[in-house]
Amino acid sequence: MARRWSIARQLFALQVLVVTLLVAIGTTGAVLLARQDARNAAIAEVTAVAQTIAHSPAVAGALRGPDPSATLQPYAEAIRRATDIDFVVVMAPDRTRYSHPSPELIGLPFAGTVADALAGGMVVEEYRGSLGDSWRTVVPVRAPGDGTIIGLVSVGITTDTINRGLIAQLPLVGAATGVALLLAAGGSWLLSRRLRRQTHGLGPAEMTRMYEYYDAVLHAVREGLVVVDRDGRVTLINDEGRRLLGATGDGPPGLPPEVSGLISEQRPMVDEPVLVGDRVLVANRRETRFDGRVLGTVLTLRDHTELRALTGELDSVRGLTEALRAQAHEAANRLHTVLTMVELGRTDDAIRLATEELALAQQLTDQVVGAVDEPALAALLLGKSAQAGERGVELTVDTESRLTGSPVAGRDLLTVVGNLIDNALEAVGGSPAPRRVGVLVREENGEVLVRVTDNGPGLRPDEAAAAFRRGWSTKGDGHGIGLSLVRQVAERYGGSYVIETAPGGGAVLTVRLPVPA
């Protein structure tokens, strides 16, 4: 099956056809106008010659002489040859010819219209006479003195003579037409060549099919797709991309600062976390090239909000499970110790040891439950305490902690407290013992204060300034997101977040969340 013509080839053929038709129509119009101009020029010429002859005293004198033809025939022929016209006929008012290019016709009646000339006017007409079709003018000859009409003068040019003049101009017209066609064809070829490069030689059916597939894929794919040109303008965004970025309307949206920052960094990205609104997205970025030219940037986005939440919950459950396993192991050791002491008859010592262990375990629970009414936050603190104990970290809840009810959304409070504690546990993980983390959560002056301290290595000033930025991590892997979530919650409430150096070393992270009215 023969390959269908591409759009460029079809456009080239159509342009050549249209240009050829236009040039043909223009040439025909030019020829017709030239013919009309030649005819008007011929009429003006024969009219001027006829009027000149009619006003000649020699002609008037000859018409009153005994043999007008003897004088008028040579006179008329001399003028005809001098002016390069086809005939000059001088006649009597009764149409009798006194001169003619064909001498045998002298004395015969003139064939043509003379009524208007006999009335003192002028006749201009196209007429088929003895010499064929011609344009002629007939004017009266008046006698000197009384002005009576004593004869008529007819001067004419045949149509063949006019056409020969036009035919002589045809080579020039043909050359101009040919040059116009060549220029038009060359321009069409250059345009079609450019179009062929831009359409890659595809035909209309292929481009239609490609667009249909392209449109279907864009609407069906479950990843956000953002295409940006070399000037940083959004040229395309699919449905999922609009949903993830919170864009509305049909036009290209402005990108959030977080996404704009990813594009402006001019580096390939693979699974880069980014916070957009209340969503945790994973971004991949790469430049698009064709024939060595950079066309723009393609950014793909995947929604990991729910996955991050589930991962966080799973990590918390895993940590709590490990802490419970360690506590169960420790409890088993203490239980064996108590039983052994009972078997040895040291019952009082066994009771005292069991009572001390029970009081110690209950102390933190009573403190947390008594200070915090929010059950989810209390459970989080108890779980983090057990997790800290498993890591060899002493986690204490400040006795000044007080939180009644739910002054802010529970989920947001858990995000702030949980991520701050996780960050502190991570900070003291590589420090020598004793490793301590303190937590203070209380409501004061219309805001919720969350402060987490640790005795880890602390942060340098430049690290403290960048700690809440997307992707920052002490590990340097670019995947830190916990403190970014804290910053996002604080900014959403219009609160503040700050990192300071503790007096004895370590870091103090303070977040203030204004209580909504």
Automatic annotation (TrEMBL):
It is a multi-pass membrane protein. It is found in: Cell membrane. It catalyses: ATP + protein L-histidine = ADP + protein N-phospho-L-histidine. The keyword Transmembrane applies. SMART domains: HATPase_c, PAS. Residues 298-517 form the Histidine kinase domain. Keywords: ATP-binding, Cell membrane, Kinase, Membrane, Nucleotide-binding, Phosphoprotein, Transferase, Transmembrane, Transmembrane helix, Two-component regulatory system. It is an enzyme of class 2 (transferase). GO terms for molecular function: protein histidine kinase activity. InterPro entries: HATPase_C_sf, HATPase_dom, His_kinase_dom, PAS, PAS-like_dom_sf, PAS_fold, sCache_3, Sensor-like_sf. This is histidine kinase. It comes from Actinoplanes sandaracinus.
